[in-house]
């Protein structure tokens, strides 16, 4: 293995079921149900997935949900805004923990 | 002149099964059902140069149907028992004599449909065409690929957005797209790149809601169409390095259940110079219907039920996912 990530590995995702078929089936059934059109449209779910993909920094998911977003008729403006949502939540999540830091620091200092 | 039955197959990436082999693997064959629809391509001239055009139509094209060929097509329609004529291009709006052609066809066929790109239909000189369409209750299928200006113009050219919206308003004013008017307005939506269209029902729902809310525009139905790897779109796929992956995607999405309902099974396409093809895509690829190139003037009837249809690898675009309507 020359690199940890290979784009062609995305299409091999299903092989993850090879040595644990029952668990894989449960996961893929659940996965399929999550992304089916429901109270949220498939388009909205693709944008959420794209934002989450950036938050967890998964290159496979970024690839898959950029494509899914385009297929659902999203344009670059919408896809970019979704990435900013991830950025804002990630940044905000770090900053909001600053409250804990401040409380602890205040408790410990004279 | 003989007809190539598997053109372009040699250019398929090695790991992708040929379309004919995919059919065979599923125990299917592509043959004709009852021929109900006559599709007429009246010319390759167009005011736009859309990047997904499988016919490479545009302002530079000079191929248009002559008055004599129009007459031969009407005579053919009269000899046969078609239920619908589907007039397409290029931009049919730019073909001289199109109004007379529509009126003559209306005398012999119960239902007519015209594919329009909205910008050509919107030019001032086409008032006579619009009134002809209203008079004969011609259903309009218009291209409107996205709900955002930048996306529409990237695909269809600058200035198209405003003109398209203005024309949709005008069509609504004439009664097109309004319930009970009897004037049908359908939208045709193509993906803006090397990917498949979204689920048609979901796209239709979103377009209906957004067009109504933002611009007070209504329509009857929406068709989400897969881009076919031919013509200008194919050249773009090749030069952008997307061809292999796109063909792989289409082949992977092959859906055997849509084969019995493919449009080529119940329609025949006539080119601007009067020759017959199984469909508009075969027309673009030069794959003629039957054993040899045949002109409508020499045909007494459409191909009989059971006649085999030539397949090509661009057929994958018609069978991907939910299939081509
Ligand atoms: S391209 Fe589509 S419509 Fe034409 S013959 Fe192939 S399957 Fe039929």
Automatic annotation (TrEMBL), chain A:
<dbReference type="InterPro" id="IPR004675">
    <property type="entry name" value="AhpD_core"/>
</dbReference>
<protein>
    <submittedName>
        <fullName>Arsenosugar biosynthesis-associated peroxidase-like protein</fullName>
    </submittedName>
</protein>
<dbReference type="InterPro" id="IPR003779">
    <property type="entry name" value="CMD-like"/>
</dbReference>
<dbReference type="InterPro" id="IPR026445">
    <property type="entry name" value="AlkhydPrxdase/COmuclacdeCOase"/>
</dbReference>
<dbReference type="Pfam" id="PF02627">
    <property type="entry name" value="CMD"/>
</dbReference>
<feature type="domain" description="Carboxymuconolactone decarboxylase-like">
    <location>
        <begin position="21"/>
        <end position="99"/>
    </location>
</feature>
<dbReference type="InterPro" id="IPR029032">
    <property type="entry name" value="AhpD-like"/>
</dbReference>
From TrEMBL, chain B:
<keyword id="KW-0408">Iron</keyword>
<dbReference type="Pfam" id="PF12345">
    <property type="entry name" value="DUF3641"/>
</dbReference>
<dbReference type="InterPro" id="IPR026351">
    <property type="entry name" value="rSAM_ArsS-like"/>
</dbReference>
<dbReference type="InterPro" id="IPR007197">
    <property type="entry name" value="rSAM"/>
</dbReference>
<keyword id="KW-0949">S-adenosyl-L-methionine</keyword>
<dbReference type="InterPro" id="IPR024521">
    <property type="entry name" value="ArsS-like_C"/>
</dbReference>
<keyword id="KW-0479">Metal-binding</keyword>
<keyword id="KW-0411">Iron-sulfur</keyword>
<feature type="domain" description="Arsenosugar biosynthesis radical SAM protein ArsS-like C-terminal">
    <location>
        <begin position="196"/>
        <end position="324"/>
    </location>
</feature>
<dbReference type="InterPro" id="IPR013785">
    <property type="entry name" value="Aldolase_TIM"/>
</dbReference>
<dbReference type="InterPro" id="IPR058240">
    <property type="entry name" value="rSAM_sf"/>
</dbReference>
<protein>
    <submittedName>
        <fullName>Arsenosugar biosynthesis radical SAM protein ArsS</fullName>
    </submittedName>
</protein>
């Amino acid at each position: 293995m020359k690199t940890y990530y290979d784009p062609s590995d995305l299409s091999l995702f299903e092989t993850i079921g090879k040595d644990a078929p029952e668990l894989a089936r449960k996961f893929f059934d659940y996965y399929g149900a999550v992304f089916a059109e429901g109270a949220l449209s498939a388009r909205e779910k693709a944008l959420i997935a794209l934002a989450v993909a950036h938050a967890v920094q998964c290159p496979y998911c970024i690839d898959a949900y950029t494509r899914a977003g385009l297929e659902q008729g999203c344009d670059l403006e919408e896809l970019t805004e979704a990435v900013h949502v991830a950025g804002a939540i990630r940044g905000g999540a770090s900053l909001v923990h600053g409250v804990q830091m401040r409380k602890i620091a205040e408790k410990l200092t004279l | 002149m003989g007809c190539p039955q598997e053109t372009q197959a040699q250019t398929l990436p090695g790991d992708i099964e040929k379309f004919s082999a995919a059919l065979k693997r599923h125990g299917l064959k592509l043959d004709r059902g009852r021929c109900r629809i006559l599709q007429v391509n009246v010319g390759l001239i167009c005011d736009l140069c859309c990047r997904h055009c499988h016919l490479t139509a545009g302002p530079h094209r000079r191929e248009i149907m002559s008055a004599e060929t129009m007459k031969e097509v009407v005579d053919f329609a009269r000899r046969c028992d078609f239920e619908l004529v589907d007039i397409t291009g290029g931009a049919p709006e730019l073909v001289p004599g199109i109004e007379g052609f529509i009126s003559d066809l209306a005398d012999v066929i119960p239902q007519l449909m015209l594919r329009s790109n909205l910008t050509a239909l919107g030019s001032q000189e086409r008032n006579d065409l619009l009134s002809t369409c209203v008079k004969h209750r011609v259903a309009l299928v218009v291209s409107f690929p996205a709900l955002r200006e930048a996306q529409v113009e990237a695909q269809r050219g600058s200035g198209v957005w405003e003109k398209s919206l203005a024309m949709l308003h005008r069509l609504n004013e004439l009664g097109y797209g309004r319930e009970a008017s009897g004037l049908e307005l359908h939208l045709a939506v193509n993906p803006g790149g090397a990917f498949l269209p979204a689920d048609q029902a979901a796209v239709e729902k979103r377009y209906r809601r957004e067009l109504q809310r933002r611009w007070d525009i209504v329509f009857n139905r929406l068709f989400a169409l897969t881009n076919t790897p031919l013509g200008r779109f194919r050249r773009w796929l090749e030069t952008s390095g997307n061809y292999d992956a796109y063909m792989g995607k289409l082949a992977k999405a092959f859906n055997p259940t849509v084969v019995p309902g493919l449009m080529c099974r119940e329609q025949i396409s006539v080119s601007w110079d009067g020759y017959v093809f199984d469909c508009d895509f075969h027309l673009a690829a030069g794959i003629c219907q039957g054993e040899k190139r045949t002109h409508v003037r020499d045909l007494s009837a459409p191909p009989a039920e059971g006649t085999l249809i030539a397949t090509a690898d661009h057929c994958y675009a018609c069978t991907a996912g939910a299939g081509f309507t």
